[in-house]
Amino acid sequence: GAADAVLLARLAHLETEFFDLNKALVNWQGEESGYASARRRVSAAIKHAWQRGSTQAFAGDGTPIGHVLDLSEEVIGELPAISANMDHVGHLKLRGMGLSDDSLAFLQAFGGLRWLNMSENNLTQLPAFRDGGAGLTKLYLQGNDIQLSEPSRLRLESMQQLKILNLGHNRRLGWSAALSDMRQLNQLYLP
Fold first, then answer.
1. How far apart, in whole angstroms, are the C-alpha atoms of residue 109 and residue 101?
2. Of the candidates 85, 89, 127, 185, which lies 20 to 30 Å from 43 by C-alpha distance?
3. DSSP 163
4. pLDDT at 4 (0 to 100)
5. pLDDT confidence band for 1 (50 / 70 / 90)
6. How far is CA 88 from CA 41, 69, 183, in A?
């Protein structure tokens, strides 16, 4: 009946989404980069998280916030832009990967992020999020070279759910954001 048709359409959509994700990752792995084995590991971890096989993250009160994708310390050059829906990933760890701003498009696949750690990379700008970072409660960006521009300052001020914001060791930050609307913020680390 109608329920079967809906289920079949959903399965067909997921099959296409996984095919596109796999194709993008295979193409990325095939680039001449010198990071072939690390890119294979990262691709496998991304697909595993897409399939909801990764571990769950839990808030301090025990509430599940989504799956964890931890690619920290994997040196892969840059992350690829992907079109797969990764909204079920609530905790994304990209610490110490040597990433530049060229990797920020990768974040557009993650509309349900609560916690993001992109510390110890080579970022020069505040990441932009598909949902404006509306659900983010923890944002770790220390140890980069981020400079706040007027648009990024406004984006940051709109992240009203942030509880922890770490921008330490960004020596050219140029902090001028207003905190009056960030009422949940209880930990702030600046250069």
1. 16
2. 127
3. S
4. 87
5. confident
6. 20, 10, 26
Six-digit token string for 13: 């959509």
> What single-letter amino acid sits at 12?
A
Q: Are 67 and 23 in contact (CB under 8 A)?
A: no
pTM: 0.94
Q: Please give the torsion angle defined by the CA atoms of residues 103, 109, 111 and 113, in that order, rounded to the nearest 10 degrees.
A: -50
Q: Would you state the pLDDT for residue 94?
A: 98
Helices (H) and strands (E) in the chain, counts: 3, 7
The secondary structure of 175-190 as a DSSP string is -----TT-TT--EEE-
Maximum C-alpha span of the chain: 62
Q: Which pair of tokens denotes residue 20? A: 């596109």
Per the structure block, which two tokens stand in for 33? 């980069």
Which residues is 145 bridged to in the sheet?
none
pLDDT of residue 44: 98
Half-sphere exposure in the Cβ direction for 169 (13 Å, CA): 11
| Token pair 């509430």 in the structure block, residue | 63
Contacts of 69 (CB under 8 A, 6+ apart): 45, 46, 49, 54, 86, 89, 91, 92, 93
Tens-digit pLDDT profile for residues 48-89:
999 999 999 999 999 999 999 999 999 999 999 999 999 999
